[in-house]
């Protein structure tokens, strides 16, 4: 018998065959490789959140190796000289150790914090994208709800993590959180006592927050993110309208290799930016704040940015205390409204919005095509209103710093916030609504009259007119018959191919430049046949 | 250049082993089987062209930069002096250098991959069917299947089964919740803890006011217009165990003290001051931050967390911001040895408000 030689070239095929005979994966694998994804820069915002979350998991695991969640009092004796001999909690001392006595610990801590800020920021911007383009509509309401839950769970993750170092700032935050829980009518004191195991601060809160921060909340986040991505995969991504795009198809590129490669590269970029932030930009220098002591606080103690709107709402709230004269008398403190009721309303409104809008518009169909914000002025207006509301609250969360830096009265800042909170959102709605209508009108105008060429012509009677390049064969009055297609209308001659493509090369052209088809200043050309059907600025060369 | 796919009617049946087929043909057929039509497929660079060589050099350059930066990271990580030294020193550059090298390494590999994917790979436009349509027939069949399962169980005919199962399982659910809830519950009013602070007299002994370092205070220690944070002179009195206790002891100027006494009289706190000295809880009645910014000229106490302002000469009444309740006043006097003591505990609840606050 001749011994068969091992053929290395046939090895992948043989392995593949062997695997498929056992698991029947060939067809599903091909489906996965071939899955089509539409591409647009705004679809990448959610990815930033996902990638930040991965960085959070990686750096977070590192931190748990060195952090000790305990409020036992110790005398600090580490490397950081200014705090030596200070009594502090083990939690604070171990965080100092991470910053000064663990090699590379500080960059991990700072990357963790920066990644958390980026995570929340990306969630917010991603939600704005989804909101303004109507991507939350049927059949994607579930994913919208999961997304808004992710914001609040991320908020909790951020707050519990912020509290762990037990430094001066985080202790103050915890104190306010306990006051917020206390303010809940009827059960407030019981809730607080249950969380803190007695009176604030007690001795167990840090270990409870620790297990919440490293196990319960991340577990919940992972579960929610998995369902979120699973639904995106199952329901397929929304797409912008455009040539060939309908409600029943997906136009884009297949997932592998190009789309996946771009995702991988983008992950590395996000990771790299977080590394740069973590190394070059100091964040939460807890050694400057000192250990938490209930009687110490400094001005300008601001929370992380995503908590600032709650801080702002608390500052703006007037001192409306409700006394209930039953029995011994009961109290609803003013703190209850801006910190418990307001977030409750926000959660409710954002969760219900897709259903409220569908009901208002009586639109119960499935939508896979996105809408440009200008085409739905009322929704864009509502969004602008919400953003304004949020920005006023966030700025008010820093109103003492603003007052200090700009030499404004602190009380004036508070009043400006109170008045602004009521007046600016409706104003933003009105202005946004008008801008949307204006943009719509301009789109229609260009479709009817053509693109401004910048060429001024003097008529025989002495008038000056600007020459317009019609987008379609014009009728006698120079009016075309193009319908608005829900997508970008070209408004510059460059977008119509009036200029040649850009010449490539940094110092000198690497290829012979293509001849420009139309020289600038050339009189309007007859529209080419292929342009007639498009309402899009996409060039398809 | 571009390879437009054209679907000619009456194509011959597809045979994957047909030697005339290119690999792309097979790929396209696979895509078709997944309801994907590759309508546009176009290489971005001509093979062997100058542009291609240039892009390849760029990508390779990025990857090599990654290797360089990553090596630099390792070298710095191992050999750079990293232990904290007071003052300026090389150790302050340790974290920035790590961040810089790690960031550059990751960004470079990212840009390398992106350039590879975006510039060197062919551009394509594919169209996939969404299959959004739902089959009402399938819905009905599944519905009937599930209804049949209920029939098989026969709960309708044998209602006792359902009722008894519920009756049996409901307590089991409670059993799951009970240890968690029961373990967490803690009576907030145990030992009257929400109403008492470290200043409550112990065994008839009045508690001294002490500084942060534990020393007691004589009236002469504070000049007129001055103030000092005071703690109960008990074991661990200066610690977070007595987080509700700290007070601000203020030496008012004569005129302010006069006004203050008048206002105290009205509030029923006539004898809470001692001479020109008054002590108010430092824990804000709004959210529990220390209200610690004292403005001497206006006698206002400002809480830096939410800007509640309290007028000290008017019995620490809230005059601006979200706080709705006075800071509780600590009744004080001077004992036989000439040190400040608390005559009793605060007579109002200290700290943030809650539902059953008396």
Automatic annotation (TrEMBL), chain A:
Keywords for the protein's UniProt record, in alphabetical order: Cell membrane, Electron transport, Heme, Iron, Membrane, Metal-binding, Respiratory chain, Translocase, Transmembrane, Transmembrane helix, Transport
Segments of this protein annotated with the region Disordered: 517-541
Compositional bias (Basic and acidic residues): 525-541
UniProt KW Protein biosynthesis keyword: no
Cofactor(s) recorded in Swiss-Prot or TrEMBL: heme
Catalysed reaction equations from the record: a quinol + 2 Fe(III)-[cytochrome c](out) = a quinone + 2 Fe(II)-[cytochrome c](out) + 2 H(+)(out)
GO CC terms in record: plasma membrane
Membrane-spanning residues: 41-67, 113-132, 144-164, 176-197, 209-233, 264-283, 335-356, 376-395, 415-433
The keyword Transcription is annotated on this UniProt entry: no
Bilayer topology term: Multi-pass membrane protein
GO biological process: one example: respiratory electron transport chain
Main location: membrane
GO molecular function, one term: oxidoreductase activity
The EC number(s) this enzyme carries: 7.1.1.8
InterPro entries in alphabetical order: Cyt_b/b6_N, Cytb/b6-like_sf, Di-haem_cyt_TM
Pfam families found in the cross-reference section: Cytochrom_B_N_2
Gene3D superfamilies for the chain: Cytochrome Bc1 Complex, Chain C (1.20.810.10)
Domain Cytochrome b/b6 N-terminal region profile: 15-241
Localisation: Cell membrane
PANTHER family for this protein: CYTOCHROME B
Protein name, as recorded: Cytochrome bc1 complex cytochrome b subunit
Originating organism: Micromonospora phaseoli
UniProtKB/TrEMBL annotation, chain B:
GO CC terms, sorted: plasma membrane
Protein topology in the membrane: Multi-pass membrane protein
Predominant place of localization: membrane
Keyword annotations of the record: 2Fe-2S, Cell membrane, Disulfide bond, Electron transport, Iron, Iron-sulfur, Membrane, Metal-binding, Oxidoreductase, Respiratory chain, Transmembrane, Transmembrane helix, Transport
GO MF term set: 2 iron, 2 sulfur cluster binding; metal ion binding; monooxygenase activity; oxidoreductase activity, acting on paired donors, with incorporation or reduction of molecular oxygen
Domain Rieske per the UniProt entry, residue ranges: 275-341
Signal sequence region: none
Matching PROSITE patterns: RIESKE (PS51296)
Compartments, record wording: Cell membrane
InterPro entries named among the record's database cross-references: QcrA_N, Rieske_2Fe-2S, Rieske_2Fe-2S_sf, Rieske_Fe-S_prot
Keyword Membrane: yes
Function recorded in the entry: Iron-sulfur subunit of the cytochrome bc1 complex, an essential component of the respiratory electron transport chain required for ATP synthesis. The bc1 complex catalyzes the oxidation of menaquinol and the reduction of cytochrome c in the respiratory chain. The bc1 complex operates through a Q-cycle mechanism that couples electron transfer to generation of the proton gradient that drives ATP synthesis.
Similarity field: Belongs to the Rieske iron-sulfur protein family.
This protein's name: Cytochrome bc1 complex Rieske iron-sulfur subunit
The species this protein was found in: Micromonospora phaseoli
Lineage: Bacteria, Bacillati, Actinomycetota, Actinomycetes, Micromonosporales
């Amino acid at each position: 018998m001749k011994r068969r030689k091992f053929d290395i070239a046939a090895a992948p095929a043989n392995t593949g065959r062997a695997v498929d005979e056992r698991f029947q994966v060939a067809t599903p694998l091909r489906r996965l490789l071939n899955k089509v994804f539409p591409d647009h820069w705004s679809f990448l915002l959610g990815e930033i959140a996902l990638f930040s979350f991965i960085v959070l998991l990686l750096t977070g695991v590192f931190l748990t190796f060195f952090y000790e969640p305990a409020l036992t009092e110790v005398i600090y004796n580490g490397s950081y000289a200014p705090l030596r001999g200070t009594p502090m909690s083990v939690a604070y001392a171990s965080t100092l150790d991470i910053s000064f006595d663990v090699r590379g610990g500080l960059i991990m801590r700072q990357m963790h914090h920066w990644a958390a800020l980026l995570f929340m920021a990306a969630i917010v911007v991603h939600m704005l994208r989804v909101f303004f383009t109507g991507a939350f509509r049927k059949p994607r309401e579930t994913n919208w709800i999961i997304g808004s839950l992710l914001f609040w769970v991320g908020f909790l993750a951020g707050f519990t993590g912020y509290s762990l170092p037990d430094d001066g700032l985080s202790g103050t935050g915890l104190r306010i959180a306990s006051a917020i829980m206390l303010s809940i009518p009827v059960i407030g004191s019981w809730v607080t006592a249950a969380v803190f195991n007695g009176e604030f601060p007690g001795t167990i809160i840090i270990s409870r927050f620790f297990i919440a921060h490293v196990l319960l909340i991340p577990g919940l986040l992972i579960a929610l993110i998995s369902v979120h991505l699973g639904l995106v995969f199952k329901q397929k991504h929304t797409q912008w309208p455009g040539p060939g795009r309908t409600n029943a198809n997906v136009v884009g590129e297949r997932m592998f290799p190009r789309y996946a490669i771009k995702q991988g590269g983008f992950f590395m970029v996000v990771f790299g930016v977080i590394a740069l932030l973590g190394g070059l930009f100091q964040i939460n220098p807890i050694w400057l704040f000192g250990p938490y002591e209930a009687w110490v606080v400094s001005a300008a103690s601001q929370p992380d940015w995503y908590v600032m709107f709650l801080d702002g709402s608390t500052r703006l709230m007037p001192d409306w205390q409700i006394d209930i004269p039953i029995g011994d008398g009961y109290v609803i403190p003013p703190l209850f409204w801006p910190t418990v009721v307001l977030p409750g309303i926000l959660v409710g409104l954002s969760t219900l919005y897709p259903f409220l809008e569908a009901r208002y518009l009586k639109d119960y169909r499935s939508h896979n095509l996105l809408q440009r914000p200008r085409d739905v002025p009322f929704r864009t207006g509502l969004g602008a209103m919400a953003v304004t509301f949020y920005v006023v609250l966030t700025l008010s969360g820093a109103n003492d710093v603003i007052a200090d830096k700009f030499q404004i009265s602190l009380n004036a800042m508070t009043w400006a916030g109170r008045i602004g909170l009521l007046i600016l959102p409706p104003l933003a709605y009105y202005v946004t609504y008008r801008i949307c209508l204006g943009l719509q009108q301009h789109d229609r105008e260009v479709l009817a009259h053509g693109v401004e060429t910048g060429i001024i012509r003097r008529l025989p009677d002495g008038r000056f007119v600007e020459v317009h390049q019609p987008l379609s064969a014009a009728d006698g009055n120079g009016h075309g018959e193009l319908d608005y297609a829900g997508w970008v209308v070209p408004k510059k001659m460059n977008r119509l191919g009036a200029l040649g493509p850009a010449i490539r090369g940094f110092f000198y052209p690497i290829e012979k430049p293509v001849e420009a088809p139309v020289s600038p200043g050339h009189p309007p050309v007859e529209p080419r046949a292929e342009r007639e059907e498009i309402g899009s600025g996409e060039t398809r060369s | 250049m571009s390879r437009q796919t054209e679907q000619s009617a009456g194509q011959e049946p597809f045979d994957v082993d047909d030697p005339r087929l290119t690999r792309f043909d097979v790929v396209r057929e696979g895509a078709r089987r997944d309801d994907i039509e590759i309508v546009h497929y176009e290489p971005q660079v001509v093979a062997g062209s100058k542009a291609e060589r240039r892009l390849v050099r760029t990508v390779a350059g990025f990857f090599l930069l990654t290797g360089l930066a990553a090596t630099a990271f390792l070298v710095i990580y191992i050999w750079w002096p990293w232990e904290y030294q007071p003052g300026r020193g090389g150790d302050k550059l340790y974290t920035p250098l790590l961040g810089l090298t790690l960031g550059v390494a990751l960004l470079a590999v990212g840009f390398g991959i992106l350039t590879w994917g975006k510039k060197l790979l062919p551009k394509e436009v594919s169209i996939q069917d969404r299959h959004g349509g739902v089959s009402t027939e399938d819905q009905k069949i599944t519905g009937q299947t599930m209804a049949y399962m209920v029939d098989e169980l026969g709960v309708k005919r044998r209602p006792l089964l359902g009722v008894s199962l519920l009756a049996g399982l409901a307590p089991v659910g409670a059993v799951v919740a009970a240890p968690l809830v029961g373990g967490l519950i803690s009576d907030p009013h145990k030992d009257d803890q929400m109403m008492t602070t470290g200043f409550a007299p112990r065994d008839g002994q009045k508690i001294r006011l002490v500084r942060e370092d534990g020393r007691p205070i004589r009236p002469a220690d504070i000049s007129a217009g001055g103030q000092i944070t005071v703690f109960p002179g008990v074991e661990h009195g200066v610690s977070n165990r007595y987080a509700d206790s700290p007070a601000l002891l203020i030496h008012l100027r004569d005129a302010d003290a006069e006004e203050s006494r008048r206002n105290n009289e009205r509030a029923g706190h006539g004898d809470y001051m001692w001479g020109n000295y008054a002590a108010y809880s430092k824990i804000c009645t709004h959210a529990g931050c220390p209200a610690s910014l004292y403005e001497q000229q206006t006698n206002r106490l400002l809480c830096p967390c939410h800007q509640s302002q309290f007028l000290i000469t008017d019995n620490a009444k809230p005059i601006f911001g979200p706080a709705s309740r006075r800071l509780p006043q600590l009744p004080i006097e001077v004992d036989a040895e000439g040190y400040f003591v608390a005559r009793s505990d605060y007579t109002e609840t200290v700290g943030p408000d809650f539902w059953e606050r008396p």
